[in-house]
Amino acid sequence: MSNLESAQRYFDVAADHMNLSANMRKMLLTPEREVKVQVAIERDNGEIATYIGYRIQHDNHRGAFKGGLRFHPEVDGDEVQALATLMTWKTAVVDIPFGGAKGGIKVNPKELSSGELERLTRKFIDQIHDILGPDKDIPAPDVGTDAQIMAWIYKQYSKFHGDCPGVVTGKPLELHGSVGREEATGRGVSIITNETLHRLHKHVKGTTVALQGFGNVGSFTAKFLHESGAKILGVSDAFGGIWNKDGLDIPALLAYTNQNGGVRGFPGGQAITNVELLTSEVDVLIPAALGGVFTREIAEHVRAKIIVEAANGPTDPDADEIFERREILVVPDILTNAGGVTVSYFEWVQNSQHFQWDLDRVRSELQKIMLASFDRIWTTATEKKIPMRTAAYIVGIGRVGRATQISGIS
Ligand code: GLU
Hints:
The protein is α/β, with parallel strands linked by helices.
């Protein structure tokens, strides 16, 4: 099932619970604007290379469009649209004053030199700068993009519109970035995992975890969960996986991956495959890489009792039904990984106030928002006897729907 079909099916399940009219469903699901551009650059060897870039602005009834930019070979219009809708529900779930958007370029950034990546990013902004702005649409990092790319976006946009740090978040600290933004998604995932265990009357200390993905989100999730006493037994990335039944030494693994570019070959564990990791015997399973990881086939073999979705869209709706039947608790992406966009919001606030917060403030405000959002979803799920994902969609869609109605359409 495509990402877009999945996103729509989850929407429909919640919309049925809410008795949303067909017209309202259509209005809430249809993106406001879809932009697809050609991005041509000169490669270092003098050849011309052409890429396709997207920015899909899904909804801005609650505030400016907000969402990351993904540089990945599998980026396409459907995927970007699905991710843009997820951003709309996500910003509503954590109740920050933004709508939802997503963008990206179909490219493998690892195959480009730094100079080529800079030209690609700047050229993309040349093509779309008119639809961006601190009160219009604010990009951020996602898979395959980082603070350096955000710096180029900030500077390129400012060439057209005057100095404007608030047009993009996830910037480097030296260029109006926020402390705590880089760690934010992983920190949020760890807060949500801790709270889930707490609500289930379990202790994080000694809880066993397997983590798929060791990029920005996965590595910070591992760091914080390890610090709170969880045992990370397995970690995998795009090149391989590593397992230690007594718990991996996470600080050593972080140092190793910094040196070697991946977890493969880490001496403190034995090699495992991705499928072995996903079906391993652990308390908590955390997908923190790309979408579409849990298919119907794999869902039957998952042995964890709790899944915490750090990635966007890791679970196919068919797999989700299997998890429900098998009483595996799924804590949904639009809640779990909302720490990133929440600290993006803090960065945007700091940029507009020309005032910097310290790390304690960022972390404590993040904690407050994540816990309040968790509580809202948990309570809704418990009261209505529905899965947490449906509860999160009901809360998110409800907020966007009410804002849409109050705004009027003329
Ligand atoms: N790309 C991140 C996400 O999927 C962050 C978006 C943002 O900070 O705007 O939530």
